[in-house]
Amino acid sequence: WPEQIARQFPQWWDEGAPAERSMNRHEKELLEEQLKRLKIQLTQPLRYHKIYSADESHVIRRQAATFKTYQFSALVFNFLDILAHGRSESEILLELAPDEAGLRSVMTSWFVHSALFEVLKAASQAGTTVVMTTDHGATVGQRAAQVVPPAADGGSECISLWDSTFSPFSS
Predict the structure, then answer these.
(1) Which of 105, 122, 130, 160 gets the highest tally of CB atoms within 10 A of its CB?
(2) What does the radius of gyration of the chain's CA atoms come to, in whole angstroms?
(3) Helix 100-112 crosses helix 115-126 at what angle (to 10 degrees)?
């Protein structure tokens, strides 16, 4: 929580930071501290990228296959925040996504064409473990999710986080 960050890491907390990039500029350091707290020892520096723009997204897309060479990579896609928070501030986004169904549709369209999806496909092909998370509760859950263990052959499986009746790939 923000209060905990301010208390534990005052050197990284700036209450008056106006811009997105300045408010979240210490995410990598906070992640490193969390890994230390959990006693997770990395043998190489973690790879951290926050993607703010389409250009940065294209760079990540081109690098997707290289992520298997890193022990720990963290990717933060700011577009999801823009879409989730920006609906109330943008007439265009509100027109595209006036309700939950519209928001899911726009997010699905973005996802199937995104660098994130390319990275996930490359991770799956390489047998890489992927953990997905969010920094806020913008998800509306209608039923419980089932977590599926890795495949018996030791490879990884893509786990859908969507409602089981929803498929981003159906037409």
Answers:
(1) 122
(2) 18
(3) 60
What pLDDT digit, counting tens, does each position of 4-50 carry?
Answer: 777 887 777 766 555 555 556 788 888 888 888 889 888 988 888 88
Instruction: Calculate the alpha carbon distances from 95 to 54, 80, 101, 112 in Å.
Output: 22, 17, 12, 21
Rounded Cα distance, 88 and 112, in Å: 24
Q: Which of 128, 156, 153, 158 is nearest to 65 (CA)?
A: 128
- pTM score, two decimals? 0.64
Using left for φ > 0, alpha for ψ between -120 and 50, and beta otherwise, residue 127 falls in left
pLDDT of 166 strictly over 60: no
- List 74's β-bridge partners, or say none: 48
Pairwise CA distance, residues 164 & 46, whole Å: 33
Measured CA to CA, the distance from residue 148 to residue 141 in angstroms comes to: 18
> For 83, phi and psi rounded to 5 degrees?
-65, -45
Residue 56 to residue 148: CA distance in whole angstroms: 32
Per the CB < 8 A criterion, the answer to whether 72 and 46 are in contact is yes
Distance from C-alpha of 95 to C-alpha of 98, rounded to nearest angstrom? 6
Cα 135 versus chain centre, distance: 8
